[in-house]
Specification:
The complex is a heterodimer of chains A (243) and B (100). With 243 residues, chain A is of the alpha+beta class. Chain A has helices at 43-50, 59-66, 68-75, 105-115, 177-187, 195-210, 223-242, and strands at 2-7, 10-14, 30-32, 80-82, 86-90, 93-98, 120-124, 129-132, 137-140, 156-166, 171-174, 213-219. Helix content of chain B is 46%, strand content 22%. The chains are: A alpha+beta (243), B alpha+beta (100).
């Protein structure tokens, strides 16, 4: 059976190994009456993920997780990809918090919601779809939203990127596009197997960084760090509003 | 110096004016996924990709950057090549076959 879902307005058809895998997706992919599909995991891809997920994970959950990387590669056909980041909308622009797992990306989001309720809306709590368009760069939801599973159906043009690190003090400063190149590349979920894919990834990251304000936040994960983050992003929004 | 060649699957790209090597295909298993290289490194890389012989590289670098001190250019070039060989992005002629 083949199931179809949308990423940044593009349809992908999955042939799941386990029918229940579709229930991990939001919205749940709809069944289509055709045999052709775009993605089906190989045994090797499934087995590799089996070693990475907790031992108690179901086959369906394992398949759901194993589909991230092949989906990210497939999306390159449309100048889209999947990025490991918390993404939210603030004053009509999307902001991306990037950094390794456990660095406090979600903490910043939940702090902000608690301190300033209703100001921001989550796009994806873990892995938004990013899209290079001719005149802008857009951020979209995806089915992979982290352990908190916070997401929405909201899409927005990119406002900026914040690279997080944990430190004993709170400090937020502008960084150059150059400083963001490797962190962004490393946090993209697609690893190229063909030359055109490597070139597509370079094009996407180039477009992303040229359309984004780039910041670095050294933080303790406390309320003060979130107030600092909000303040800087607010200044950025004010500047863009006046431009 | 042995003749140099680029490991199959390693691609030189440009992001925001910076030169970035990306390991794709079979290179993914043996090289760092991504690395940034300097402008002069990218110049040397392009010469190798065009089939320049090792002995041609230094004169090409001297001409491109109008460097008066050949020793300085040689040190810079050898440092870059050593780094690329160590990370596996470049191969010395015959090296791949030996490993097979």
């Amino acid at each position: 059976m083949v199931y179809q879902t949308e990423f940044a307005g593009h349809s992908l058809r999955y042939s799941f190994k386990k029918p229940n895998t579709r229930y991990f997706f939001r919205p749940i992919p709809r069944r289509v009456e055709q045999n052709e599909y775009d993605l089906r995991l190989t045994e090797e891809q499934f087995s590799r993920m089996r070693k990475l997920v907790p031992p108690t994970s179901t086959d369906s959950y394992t398949e759901y997780r194993a589909l991230i990387a092949p989906t990210a590669r497939k999306l390159l056909h449309w100048d889209c990809c999947i990025l490991h980041a918390v993404s939210f909308v603030y004053r009509e622009k999307a902001w991306l918090l990037i950094g390794p797992s456990g660095i406090g990306k979600s903490t910043q989001y939940f702090n902000w919601q608690r301190l300033f309720p209703g100001e921001i809306t989550m796009i994806s709590g873990d892995m938004p779809v990013i899209e290079l368009r001719k005149d802008a760069f857009w951020i979209h939801p995806s089915p992979w939203n982290g352990k908190e599973r916070v997401c929405s159906r909201l899409s927005a043009p990119l406002g900026g990127l914040v690279l997080l690190s944990q430190e004993g003090e709170n400090r937020m400063e502008r960084v150059t596009e150059k400083e963001m190149i490797l962190p962004v590349l490393i946090h993209l979920l697609a690893r190229p197997e063909e030359e055109w894919e490597a070139r597509a990834i370079a094009r996407i990251v180039d477009g992303m960084l040229r359309n984004a304000a780039c910041w670095k936040l050294a933080n303790k994960g406390d309320d003060d760090s979130t107030a600092l983050l909000r303040g800087r992003i607010g200044e950025e929004a004010d500047l863009r509003g006046r431009a | 110096m042995e003749e140099l060649k680029i490991r199959p699957g390693v691609i030189l790209t440009e992001i925001c004016g910076e030169h970035v090597l990306v390991a794709a295909k079979e290179a993914r298993e043996v090289c760092p996924y991504v690395s940034m290289i300097s402008e002069s490194g990218a110049f040397i890389w392009r010469q190798i990709s065009r089939g320049a012989k090792s002995s041609d590289l230094l004169p090409l670098v001297l001409e491109e950057y109008e460097i008066e001190d050949p020793e300085q250019a040689k040190t810079m070039m050898n440092g870059f090549i050593r780094q690329m060989l160590e990370s596996g992005y470049l191969l010395e002629e015959g090296e791949e076959n030996e490993k097979e």
